[in-house]
Specification:
- The longest helix has 18 residues.
- The protein has 200 residues and is of the alpha+beta class.
- The protein contains three helices and six strands.
Length: 200
């Protein structure tokens, strides 16, 4: 009996075992992916916040078909939220009624080293977004919430200092007192108002 012939198969190629691309066409995705800033991760890694029902194959297929991003591997983990008393929307939280919010799922993808992704730097000038006005508005909202809270009547009045300063200026003669009716004309309308002094 002749000996068996050696095998003519060549070396195994990794492309032959790559998972096939998805063929399901989704035109209106009903989920949201949030890209996180990871300054300590290598440039070929990216982390997303994904819905709980999204799996690794869905994320890999989504990034390839929508953005053309080749994904080598995907790692995911579910981060449990802290237990709190009662639900967040409860008007009067009840004691010893525990509630755990929805968990958070994060996925980290590995991209080829030849196509790294560098997260854009944070802007240093926030003038186009009017950040100063938003900060002032946030401060006013916090002050109003404190004033409407249970300790609101005990908080010092914001107008007290201004009224005290005006009274000191009048007592020391720095400013002359002027009644408000002197700024009104005889017709009972402020001076300069449209229609003032016009008889009907």
């Amino acid at each position: 009996m002749p000996p068996p012939k050696p095998s003519t198969l060549g070396p195994l190629l990794p492309d032959r075992f790559r998972a096939p691309r998805g063929q399901k066409r989704v035109y209106l995705p009903n989920f949201t992916l949030t890209l996180l800033r990871t300054p300590f991760a290598p440039p070929n890694y990216a982390t997303f916040i994904t819905p709980l029902h999204l799996n690794k194959l869905d994320l890999k297929d989504y990034l390839y078909n929508l953005y053309g991003v080749e994904v080598l591997s995907v790692r995911s983990y579910v981060q449990q939220a802290r237990v709190r008393q009662d639900k967040p929307g409860a008007r009067l939280p009840k004691a010893r009624r525990w509630y755990r919010p929805r968990a958070l799922k994060k996925m980290t993808i590995e991209m080829p080293a030849t196509s790294p992704f560098i997260y854009p730097k944070a802007p240093s000038d926030f003038t186009p977004w009017d950040k100063e006005m938003q900060e002032r508005a946030q401060k006013v909202r916090e002050q109003e919430q404190k004033a409407m809270g249970p300790m609101g009547p005990r908080l010092p009045k914001q107008d007290g200092k201004t009224l005290r300063e005006q009274a000191e200026e009048l007592l020391r003669g720095r400013k002359a007192w002027r009644p408000g009716w002197m700024d009104w004309d005889l017709g009972g309308k402020p001076k300069g108002e449209v229609g003032a002094g016009v008889g009907l």
